[in-house]
């Protein structure tokens, strides 16, 4: 995948959005609209935001992710952020960015299990 | 090809923010920082490159390896000829912004780096110097 482009894949009623490793600000800004439009088009129940490729999550990028999750919520969807790298998690927390209220999972598989309600304890 | 341990890059477009991240990542890695510190340094650089681009009307980033007898590290300087910062202590407060941004850039950089120094003349520009030392 291109280092800047965003991929949106639909699996059943879930959108899997893979964020690029090093997007420019325009690509980050386009994230919200692209994801919300896809939600409407596919009547998706939830969105899995895959950050596993992301190497740098600065305040602008982190805020966009948090806002996107909020907007998906307003549209009636659920967001699970997955795959955050350890160094990115440490850095983001150290900056004090408010990602704490976002639902997270370690991997896409686990997020899918949860959203599709296949795994009892996590429902 | 390896990036020189001292150099500068012009920040004039949004793409230059990405270029700054790439270059700083390479330099910090070459200096020997581990992945967590590299991520901290690159994140701080991203915040300040965006400030230069958005508020300073463009400028430059300079990087160099710094060393003394006991330690080594990286120094980054972000220089613009923009409007400058009238109240530096306010600019370092979380959430303080003159109107456009989040007001997170400078405080974030301060938390992630070991040293941060701001020189600013209102009307003439700003120079932010950041340092990070390698842990022993």
Return the string of H and E elements of chain B: EHHEEHHEE
Contiguous uncertain segments of 5+ residues of chain B: none
The H-level CATH homologous superfamily of chain B, spelled out, is Histidine kinase-like ATPase, C-terminal domain
State the CATH topology of chain B: Heat Shock Protein 90
- Give the helix tally of chain A: 4
Structural class category of chain B:
alpha+beta
State the CATH class of chain A: Alpha Beta
CATH class identity of chain B: Alpha Beta
How would you state the average pLDDT of chain B, rounded? Answer: 90
CATH architecture of chain A: 2-Layer Sandwich
**Distance N terminus to C terminus of chain A?**
32 Å
Apparent shape of chain A: globular
Largest sheet of chain A: 5 strands, mixed
Mean pLDDT of chain A: 88
Distance between the termini of chain B: 28 Å
Corresponding CATH superfamily of chain A: STAS domain
Helix amount of chain A, in percent? 40-55%
Assign a percent range to the helix content of chain B. 25-40%
**Number of spatially distinct domains of chain A:** 1
Q: Per the principal axes of the C-alpha atoms, what is the gross shape of chain B?
A: globular
